[in-house]
Design brief:
Helices cover 5% and strands 52% of the residues. By secondary structure, it is mainly β. It folds into 2 domains: 122 residues, Sandwich (Jelly Rolls), CATH 2.60.120; 145 residues, Jelly Rolls. The strands form 4 sheets. Strands 2, 3, 4, 5, 6, 7, 8, 9 and 10 form a 9-stranded antiparallel sheet that branches.
């Protein structure tokens, strides 16, 4: 069964100075989940802290604005940046002008990657607009990988930004050995999980639980009337989904546990803006 939450329906919680979080995916809502996801808002002059457990990792995407991240070293992230936060670390986040973030925590990442404790990933920032863009072989979707073993030296999490143009239908697919979480950045769409239709819109997050090692998540996208849309998806190692998008759809998918052309990455970035 697909669990859908829209950020507008979640009460914000104060987590720092002019900083709030909206819990999009929690262990209480999905007891078997391996990924915890938050939408974090930093107002102008806002700041907060993020703690990553000893056997876990964090992953962050800047959706709007800019943020400064500090943990021994300091990095400035804009809205084309993602970052991996390594285990056993505390990060200070601040923003002079304000920022919107998607934050995913994999608390037990060591269970998903046999090399995790011996060779843990390090803090790293990636500008995804410089990463290759891949065109689907079967439909008009495009994707940019924003978390892979090659980028972050861990198999515990995979993430991608997927863009569905108007009048597009995506083919059925599933993820094996992974849980799937996605957040809709822009646009709207109809998705089918095990052939049951679900309507998704900007600000929605949805997760598909894993059964017998397979997350069933048939995906088809049909885009009929609106601008293109996209979304990040995270997989913590999952299912089958079909998405039909009437308005254009952009989503991010995170897979708790490939790469593409710079020109297409800029196209996805420009669409979002």
């Amino acid at each position: 069964m697909v669990a859908i939450v829209n950020e507008a329906d979640v009460q914000p919680q104060q987590i720092g100075k002019r900083a709030t979080r909206r819990a999009m995916l929690t262990a209480e809502a999905a007891p078997a989940t391996r990924v915890i996801a938050d939408r974090i808002t930093l107002e102008a002059g806002g700041s907060c802290k993020l703690d990553v457990p000893d056997t876990g990792l964090g992953w962050m995407q800047v959706l709007a604005g800019s943020v400064t991240v500090q943990c021994g070293e300091q990095a400035s992230l804009t809205d084309t940046c993602v970052a991996l936060l390594p285990p056993a670390s505390r990060f200070d986040l601040s923003s002079d002008s304000g920022a919107e973030l998607l934050y995913a925590l994999v608390p037990r990442a060591a269970e998903l990657d046999e090399r995790f404790m011996a060779d843990p990933p390090r803090f790293k920032v990636v500008d995804w607009s410089r990463e290759p863009v891949l065109d689907s072989k079967h439909d008009s979707r495009q994707r940019v990988y924003v978390a892979t073993p090659g980028l972050f030296n861990t198999r515990a999490i995979k993430a991608e930004i997927i863009s569905y143009p108007r009048r597009t239908t995506g083919s059925n697919h599933h993820h094996e050995g992974a849980e799937h979480f996605a957040y809709v950045i822009s646009g709207s769409t109809t998705g089918y999980a095990d052939e049951a239709p679900h309507r998704y819109r900007a600000g929605d997050s949805f997760t598909t639980p894993m059964a017998n090692g397979i997350t069933r998540r048939p995906v088809r996208t049909r885009n009929i009337a609106s601008p293109n849309s996209s979304c990040p998806a995270i997989t913590g190692r999952s299912g089958r989904t079909r998405i039909e998008s009437a308005r254009g759809f952009r989503r991010g998918a995170i897979h708790a546990a490939k790469r593409r052309s710079a020109r297409s990455a800029r196209m996805i970035r420009d669409r979002r803006r």
